[in-house]
Amino acid sequence: MNQTTPFRKDLVLVGGGHSHVQVIRMLAMKKALRGIRVTLVSDESTVCYSGMLPGCLAGLYRPDEMEMELRPLCAWAGIRFIRARAAGLDPALQQVFFEDGRPSLAYDALSINIGSIPRGIDTPGVREHAVPTRPLGKLLRRVHQFEENHRPDGQPLRIVIAGGGAAGAELAFAMHARWGERFAPIEITLVESQSTLLTGHNPRVARIIMRYLEEKGITCVAGRRVAGVDETEVHFEDHPSLPCDFLLWATGGAPPDLLRNTNLDTSEAGFIRVRDTLQVTGYDNVFAAGDCIEFESRPLPKSGVYAVREGPVLARNLHAWLEKRTLVPYRPQASALALLMTGTRNAVASRRHLAFHGAWVWRLKDWIDRRWMRKFEPSLLPPMDPAGDSPHAAKEADGDADEAAMRCSGCGAKVGSTVLTGVLDELEVFDREDVRIGLRDADDAALLEVPPGRSLVQTVDGFRAFTGDLHLFGRIALVHAASDLYAMGADPHSALVTVTLPYAKKHLVANDLRQLMGGIAEEARRLRVTLLGGHTSEGSETAVSVTMNGLTGSDSVFRKGGLQPGDGLVLAKPVGTGIILAADMHLKARGRWVDEVFEGMLQSNTEAARVLAQTGISAVTDVTGFGLAGHLGEMLEASGAGAEIEIDRVLRYEGTEECIAAGVESTLAPSNREHLQKRWQIEAAAGEADTSDAAGAILYDPQTSGGLLAGVPSARVDEVLSKLRDAGYEQAACIGRVTDRMRHLKIR
Q1: pLDDT, tens digit, for every residue of 324-348?
Q2: Are 574 and 535 found together in one domain?
């Protein structure tokens, strides 16, 4: 995240489709991002390549072979990634709005590549009982869920696929290959509303596909329009209902819901109208590509082939528009080659009036698909350097760099008052009566009243940004800072925030501050914390520090000491955040791993502290930067005790084991390990691995917003675990016990 060149403009990409992944790769490879801050917004951090989906369902590919990881791709390219669902766009205000209520995201240039949704999704019962083919990741999850829950009873498994185009036929073949033996007997019916199947392909292709369908016993029904769906049947307008246990909705494309809230020019069907340059009609700074568009000049089929071909033109034109150069038109090929899989290592080729089929067609398709995926494989991406790509870009960037190098230090490095005041005025702040002077006042410091019988508890914590999603980063920073108060048994009361932002043009700084403070304020309201004020400054990278105040009664303070031999050691949350974040930085983490870690970081220790207080547990700490072993060591030293740890009971975030096996660790882990091993006798159980190897790496991993660790009398461990799990800490576990051997830690 370290920034050396000041940003001048914001380019926002909405959607992680086939065109946008090419835009990211090509702009980075051409070194065209200097001075341009790019942000990708996607509701999924892992997207599936549509060309390999049928093969994956048929068992010819592993799921990970068709998955494209957006987080490492963005990290490699030096662009920001925000996992969120866009709810609307305002091209006049140049803002993107979100479903989760975070502040809107401003842009100078915008590109939209969000695909389409199946047509007829609003047909009665479809949303509740059918499995739509898009998004692809959701389709895979629904198939796996059905497999886990279905219990064969000797009756045929009845599968209906609505949509008799190429996608429907491929799905019919794939499901036959996947479930034909596993759930035999099965009955697959392909239903099409039009009078013929495979519309858009030449008759010979249709005959070949029909022959393959007949060979596999797949029934084809044309001329039947679905009128409704329930749990057991598919209903038609003028025909008898069809029994169904599993319904796949593979109809043609329809515009996504987002396009209803964009104020952009759309076609009669609801798709975004674009010019040949891929610019949206009426807005030169808004571009779009893929299945969500329709050209003014000519209609194109909703096919990934065209989205792939549009990618290079989109990348070139976005860069050209940002540099005020001439744009080029996209000229689609007269016809596209379609390669349709048949559930085995055999495929059908279709182009214009040509039709071929056989194993060699499958090999061609497999080669094309794998070559495409290799372009975006994190381990195969070339190393990047920050050089500019053109004399014009370099000259402008160098000018900005000179300006940044001459920025004042001291109080001259503050964020300007116009930007700061504008952002702070927008914040919704939780107010307290005992805050006499706070954020809304123009005084030099805050003034608090401490209620009689209560003690003031203070802590400070902070770190540099580990994600380009500044709203998310702000939320985590606030939750993390509050953790020290919960570890003391205090209720968070108020906070001062110090923010460092890289130098950029004024409107970009305002965008960053709005996102960051919006996230901090959101969590502050959730935790009933009043924001008192703070400080802003310029620096080389984004960072946040939070000074948090809390209140507690003198008889309810948690301490690190007080552990007794025999006490169980209860940990409320999993560990592994340092390892996963390090893997993410080195492009080795899967999107779902990082997503899970971020969700864990956002889980406050509020309820865990309440459970421990109610059950009378007072020996407590939170697991953060010094790792599980380091913070446990602090508790043991304060108690004059030792411990035994059951390493397999220490729950990890998904992906942690894979990262450890690959040699990934946080840069702080060696220091944590060295410190503990110099001060403690660490022993592995007889015949078990030494903790100096990878097996013990998890003990020294620094945690961000980690869980509470408590010493619990052995007779109450089950009670405390049950209450923690009921409070939402589903992975809470007893990871060991306290012993009477001072400075001795045994790992089992």
Answers
A1: 999 999 998 877 788 999 999 999 9
A2: no
